[in-house]
């Protein structure tokens, strides 16, 4: 089992090694040349972080196959996605995080978030809190959404690295169609990943078996 250094430390090491200044410039302040230079620097830093041992994230073809559309994958990006995965907004940390978003030509979408915790104890605690947040999400949704209903299902543990668990959640609203989501939460050493898949529908539309394999792959790839 290997314990990763935090992404923030890795990024700082890249900056020091390459002589990059870690300067933040807002879009309003940056012109086209500055924006292009910033993008190039970010891409270079991301590449160097991979060499230093940043987690390896899923590819589109590792998600559950869609019946009528390929999966498209965004870039691996530092920070949390926008929006943060439903149910986990108050649990996922904002630092030492990578994410990658996925989408189809229809309504199915997915996102993977990877967190590098300071140590294994912190990673275990984060994993427990993430699983608890999904378990309790249905009840919270019904309290916060008048007329809404939600159902949670436990799709069991996976024997992979330091363990993973798969959850299912269906939410409904009187004026909106049902949505079904699957969550895979797993850990390897001090690295934690969350994979969320979602589309319109109910549990009968959820590709549970394929998503369990996606979750297994996501955890196995954490050490690159």
Automatic annotation (TrEMBL):
Entry annotated with the keyword Signal: yes
Signal sequence, start to end: 1-30
Keyword Signal among UniProt keywords: yes
Keywords carried by this UniProt record: Signal
Superkingdom per UniProt: Bacteria
Designated name of the protein: PknH-like extracellular domain-containing protein
Organism: Allostreptomyces psammosilenae
